[in-house]
Design a protein that fits this description.
The protein is mostly helical and 178 residues long. It contains 10 helices and no strands. It comes from Spongiibacter nanhainus.
Length: 178
Amino acid sequence: MSETYNERIDEILEDYREVIGSDFPGYRNHCIRMAEICDLLQATDEEDRHKIAIAAAFHDIGLWTANTLDYLPPSVPPAVQYLEKHGLEDWSDEVSAMILEHHKLRPVDSASSYLVELFRKADLVDFSKGLVRFGLSRAKYSRLVETYPNAGFHKMLVRMSCCWFVRHPLNPLPMMKW
């Protein structure tokens, strides 16, 4: 398990601890699991791991900052602001694409960046609780969940989805893309 992911994700998420509230442990662990799954699915270099950590920390942040299930677009500006603040604005397009495409149901045309598709796969592995694994062994996924427990993350998603559906029955999953 990568201390780099833990440190980077923790550093970013600390600024959002209050707004995330009681969902913080579950979201933090989901972000770290996703980042680790990226490495387990495909070898990455240090720069790519840095991009993955940033995208992971911000990929669902709009759930809380914008208080909406249609959270992909509102998750991008905080990531871009973070990149600009840290002199990494050259990564903005790639990290934004990683965030915006991570719920795409079909593979992403990754001609511009293999990380966009890798990130999508990693989120699907964790969202499905390892039912979809893209070749990742069940044992490796189980070890990740033991190390970084779910802490109610999936229950929170179900709760938020139900509340959204009551108000938006014709648009039940706005974050999903074909």
